[in-house]
């Protein structure tokens, strides 16, 4: 079946997804027909984070162009731990923890990919890895790998100084086995992943060629950093998660609307499905008009991750809180709870800010409030130990706290 759409490779390249590629001309030709591709997601936590968005969006573009994506949940490889891009060994998780994390990841991927009628597949590599016979694996698979070539791979070279243990050394073999297995049983011809996966992808291509005599392909994505040199998805609060219970839709929206002006066009290309003509038009806005492009970026990314309703709520909350009516509340704003009993005794402001998550520590709260960066119901908090009690509760049984210009928490009294 020939794909009667623009070749997805040119789409990915124009939007900034391509870093390295094997046999570019062959991939472009192969993508003229329906292709199955895959990316692996290791379930080391119950939620994916912003660092996974580039791989997720690439799979979504593949599907929109008529191809079939496979999302591989790495239930088996996570039992080993990927050394790629790491300076120390990851903690080894139990089977139960991995399976629980995998369920959360499956739900999040379903927001971006259509799994109906096998238009996309979701598989767990534990299904074929955990039952492998070790002696047979060494004989049939391990003999195809050169230790010298493996040690030359960047993912291993970077770990040799700090120490690379034997269980991590096996990771490349297992990921290569994944690619071969997916080719043999699912017809998968393309593996994609972050640039730190280049060596693992090449190993899978080589293994498939040796075992099946067939050519398969690989594409890697660049490491995405902001213009300030900060890794995507990192804030003062820590990681930005795709799970709304870990990062609220409002905070997710605020993360995007607060991006540097210089990054807006690039991020619109990577993290939305807006036509590139519109992306370039928004990216060309200057001065105060760039706020329009930021609002589009924040809305579109939040809609993709959390749905249109949550995106509208976050957009409205942002307008209310940064407009004239600062005390107006919206259900999209992050909330925390404080008991009536606690409040009846009075809580020093710095303790409350730390308790509801506006700062990581009480020391950080002291510094913030001491510099005049804390607000209570729209008014500046005068000292770090100002007592907040029942008199500060608004008519709707809440207190609105703000740290700096843009971080809000609504405290609900229960």
Task: Describe what you observe in this structure.
- Helix 4 links the parallel strand 3 (68-73) and strand 4 (121-124).
- The longest helix is centred in the last third of the chain and has 17 residues, at 290-306.
- A six-stranded mixed beta sheet has the order 1-6-5-2-3-4, sandwiched between helices. Strands 9-15-14-11-12 form a five-stranded mixed beta sheet. A two-stranded antiparallel sheet has the order 7-8.
- 43% of the residues lie in helices and 14% in strands.
- It folds into three domains: 8-221, Rossmann fold; 234-322, Tyrosyl-Transfer RNA Synthetase; 335-413, RNA-binding S4 domain (Structural Genomics Hypothetical 15.5 Kd Protein In mrcA-pckA Intergenic Region, Chain A, Roll).
- 40% of the residues are buried.
- It is globular and about 75 Å long.
- It is an alpha/beta fold.
Helix content: 40-55%
Q: For the terminal residues, how far apart are their CA atoms?
A: 60 Å
As a percent range, the share of strand residues is 5-15%
| CA-based gyration radius | 24 Å
Question: How many E strands?
Answer: 15
CATH architecture descriptor of the largest domain: 3-Layer(aba) Sandwich
Fill in the CATH topology of the largest domain: Rossmann fold
What does the average pLDDT come to? 85
Q: Give the CA-based shape.
A: globular
Query: How many individual domains?
Result: 3
Uncertain parts: 85-89, 324-329
User: In CATH, what is the class of the largest domain?
Assistant: Alpha Beta
Largest sheet: 6 strands, mixed
Number of helices: 19
């Amino acid at each position: 079946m020939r794909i009667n759409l623009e070749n997805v490779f040119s789409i990915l390249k124009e939007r900034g997804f391509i870093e390295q590629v094997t046999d570019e001309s062959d991939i472009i030709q192969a993508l003229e027909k329906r292709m199955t591709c895959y990316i692996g997601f290791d379930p080391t936590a119950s939620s994916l984070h912003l660092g996974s968005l580039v791989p997720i969006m690439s799979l979504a573009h593949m599907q929109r162009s008529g191809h079939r994506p496979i999302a591989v949940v790495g239930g088996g490889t996570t039992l080993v731990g990927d050394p790629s891009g790491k300076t120390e060994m990851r903690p080894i998780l139990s089977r139960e923890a991995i399976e629980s994390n995998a369920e959360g990841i499956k739900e999040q991927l379903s927001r971006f990919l259509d799994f109906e009628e096998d238009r996309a597949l979701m598989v767990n590599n534990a299904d074929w890895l955990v039952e492998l016979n070790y002696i047979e694996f060494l004989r049939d698979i391990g003999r195809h790998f050169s230790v010298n070539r493996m040690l030359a791979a960047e993912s291993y070279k970077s770990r040799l100084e700090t120490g690379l243990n034997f269980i991590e050394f096996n990771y490349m073999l297992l990921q290569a086995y994944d690619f071969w297995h997916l080719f043999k049983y699912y017809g998968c011809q393309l593996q994609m992943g972050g640039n730190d996966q280049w060596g693992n992808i090449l190993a899978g291509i080589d293994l498939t060629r040796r075992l099946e005599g067939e050519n398969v392909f690989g594409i890697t994505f660049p490491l995405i950093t902001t213009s300030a040199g900060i890794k995507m998805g990192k804030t003062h609060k820590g990681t930005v998660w795709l799970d709304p219970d870990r990062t609220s839709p409002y905070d997710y929206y605020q993360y995007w609307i607060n991006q540097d002006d210089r990054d807006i066009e690039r991020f619109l290309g990577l993290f939305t499905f807006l036509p590139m003509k519109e992306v370039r038009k928004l990216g060309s806005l200057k001065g105060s008009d760039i706020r329009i492009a930021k609002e589009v970026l924040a809305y579109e990314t939040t809609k993709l991750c959390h749905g249109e309703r949550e995106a509208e709520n976050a957009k409205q909350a942002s307008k209310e809180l940064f407009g004239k009516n600062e005390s107006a509340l919206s259900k999209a704003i992050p909330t925390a709870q404080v008991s009536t009993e606690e409040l009846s005794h009075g809580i020093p402001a710095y303790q409350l800010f730390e308790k509801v998550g506006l700062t990581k520590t009480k020391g950080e709260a002291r510094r913030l409030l001491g510099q005049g960066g804390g607000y209570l119901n729209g008014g500046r908090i005068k000292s770090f130990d100002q007592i907040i009690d029942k008199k500060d509760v608004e008519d709707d049984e809440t207190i609105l706290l703000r740290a700096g210009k843009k971080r809000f928490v609504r405290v609900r009294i229960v």
